[in-house]
Amino acid sequence: MNIIWHNQSKQFHLYNEKISYIIGVNPVGGIGGIYFGRRIHDKEDMSYVVNRFSLPNVAVDPDTESYSMELNLQEYPAFGTTDFGTQAYEIELQNGSRVSSFVYRDHKIFSGKPSLAGLPATYANEQEAMTLEIVLEDEIAKMTLTLSYTIFADYPVITRHAVFHNEGVSRTKLIRALSACLDLPDQDYEWMQFSGAWARERIPETKKISAGSVSVESKRGTSSANQNPFVIVKRPHTDDFAGEAIGLSLVYSGNFIAKAEGDCFGRLRLLMGIHPDRFTWILNGGESFETPEAVIAMTSEGLNDLSQTFHELYNNHLVRGKWKNEPRPILINNWEATYMDFNEERILSIAKRAKEAGVELFVLDDGWFGERNDDYAGLGDWIENPQKLPQGMAGLARKLNALGMKFGFWIEPEMVNPDSNLYRRHPEWVLSVPGRKSSLGRHQLVLDFSREEVVDHIYGMLKKVIGGAPISYIKWDMNRSLTEVFSLAMDASEQGMVYHKHILGVYSLYERLIRDFPDILFESCSSGGNRYDAGMLYYAPQAWCSDNTDAIDRIRIQYGTSYGYPLSSIGAHVSAVPNLQTGRTVPIETRANVACFGTFGYELDLNKITEEEFEQVKEQIRFMKEYRGLLQFGTFYRLKSPFEGDQAAWIVVSKDKKIAIFGLYCLRSNVNALPGFLKLAGLDPDMAYVLDDAEYYGDELMNIGVTLTKLCQSGLTTGKDFVSYVKVLEAR
Ligand code: GLA
Q1: Number of domains making up the chain
Q2: pLDDT by residue (tens digit) across 163-222?
Q3: Which residues span the domain enclosing 355?
Q4: Mean pLDDT value across the chain
Q5: Residues with CB under 6 A from ligand 1
Q6: 234 φ, ψ to 5°?
Q7: What do you get for the CA distance between the two ends of the chain, in Å?
Q8: Which of 202, 254, 257, 471 would be a feasible disulfide site paired with 503, CB 3.0-4.6 Å?
Q9: Domain end among 603, 633, 663
């Protein structure tokens, strides 16, 4: 890994063993792109890549008389001079002009990676990464723009963000500030997005890229289930096993946009950052604005390789604290078993049976506080309800600890019900527009987290209840989109700052609670997977993946999630049948066979299953305890897509390749079909592996495959839907 500055040509070459990222000062003093792709040799001057060949109807720079931004790759372009594509940023000066021109002033290259103020970001020490900060200036605007690039030693990854600084005295308005723009010299790509809705999150969808644009976005105040701030652009022939692709992930949990824009000269522009709609940031003299971080990864070996890069990067350089690379406790959550209708006795009866099965952690879900007996009341009043918990959290925790179980609970700190003491006391603390109605979502309003005093108050309440008992885990929920986004604490000119300030408030509350309770495992949640993004992983190493706990739907949701996020982050539970969301009945074996490729837990009353099923549960937990390290942190490969056929499959392989676990699932049985083979991946071709008492070389298993005859006999292809098969392969 290195970052070289070529003084003569004014070019930078960031490289490691896998990739080269070359940029340079362009003929008009800005920063232009030169090359991004597989590692190439370093050269003093790559200016031949700069195009000076003009075309009709193209605007050119008046000094050079030939250089047009439109005909060259840009790194962080503005609209208004010679670039007509979507701009990375836009500034409005006091005279109303929106034209800007930032030119190179100086730069710094150093080892390591600084953190971002108040924002989540990947981190690395001086051996693991190098950073380049290029400072540009616009003399008329009296502003600087710092473009920041980090290259990691061991990953084909560049992270980027930008910082605007007002060096003058007059107030300027930043009306767009994306995190990164990446111009590519050709357009021969497809776009992959991960779209969905509540209970059907992150479903992969592929589209052809051509002249024009394709984009995904959220304007809900959260990253959302509808679109995810992770996208892939891939060559048309690229699949999970071969081919080039670039992945872009935004380390941010609020409104975002990700866009690919093909121009009419066959080039492609990729952009990612905070959504510019409803965004205006006021910069008074001396003030700065820092964008969130975008992570750009590339592969020339297929999408599994790309996903593995994100998995490893996020496990090793985004997740922090005690739970980094730590196998996760097997939990039981009472939500689907009781909803809000519980008391301590009921909880203890569920917990006791779970403990007997080997469960390690009890999670008390919604309904333990204030007047929270249904979803019309109580949010905001973070005090135990004495009817349900006569001795409070502390009393319940003591009883669970005495059983030998750890304890955690549910919170939804960003919300308030109109029917709550908090709202009655502070109606001005919600996001709302004076004189207008406030839309409700699940009968609740959104607290104005752009106001420090609101965050401080919630922090105080939560600190008390968390600190008052031995708490090992917190499920942090967020169950509605933001509407009527207006802060009563800000003046008219500042209202465009509310969305972003709100999410900064969420991050600051997370940061304070993590600082106070460093051993607690946080799981983020937002009506399931409505805020499943890299930003959240910086605070909460795992996320409730979806409220849809149906194992067959979950295969699709977890499969889609795996493109951008590690298995260690995928909250997955075994729930009751018929499933509460889909009505489908799936064998308990398959429910566990899906959930074990995630953080694993139960979300049902184990008193209500048969003795035979209970014995299976005990065995599932024993299996998970033995293999969770591998299942959550091993190298994961998608093998067979649930979107393409009647079976789905995946595998995790240990780093030394001596052990692997694969899962094969029948989504729909096939009559009169040959058993066929499942080709595995990631094994050592020369190692002999034991599977079902027989021995196979890795190359056999990867090129011929596992015969599915046994599965056929067990019904996988002959008449039983939803059967599955999870097998451990061990090198001899
Ligand atoms: C959301 C979550 C669920 C559960 C409920 C509680 O829907 O996704 O898992 O916690 O809230 O109200």
Answers
A1: 3
A2: 999 999 999 999 999 999 999 999 999 999 999 999 999 999 999 999 999 999 999 999
A3: 331-633
A4: 96
A5: 335, 365-366, 410, 477, 479, 525, 527-528, 544, 547
A6: -135, 155
A7: 37
A8: 254
A9: 633
